[in-house]
């Protein structure tokens, strides 16, 4: 293999590894955001069960 081909191959490999790293990090951020919203919703449901929903309190 020529030196130019080796340089191209190493650059290509580096770029593909970098792209895979970006995709993994983006997936982790999406997952963390999803669980944060789910946890917040669960906490709100617990609170609503204890004190009632805001619209139910207004009607009562």
Total strand segments = 0
Structural class: mainly alpha
Shape descriptor reads rod-shaped
Helical content class = over 70%
Helix and strand run: HH
Radius of gyration: 25 Å
User: What distance separates the N and C termini?
Assistant: 81 Å
Instruction: Report the mean per-residue pLDDT as an integer.
Output: 84
Number of helices: 2
* Major sheet details: none
Quaternary structure annotation? single chain
Write out key terms for the chains shown.
60 residues; 2 helices; 0% strand; mainly alpha
Walk me through the structure.
- With 60 residues, the chain is mainly alpha-helical.
- It has one domain.
- Helices cover 92% and strands 0% of the residues.
- It contains 2 helices and no strands.
- The mean pLDDT is 84.
What are the SSEs and their pairings?
Blueprint: H1 3-51, H2 54-59
Concise description?
The protein has 60 residues and is mostly helical.
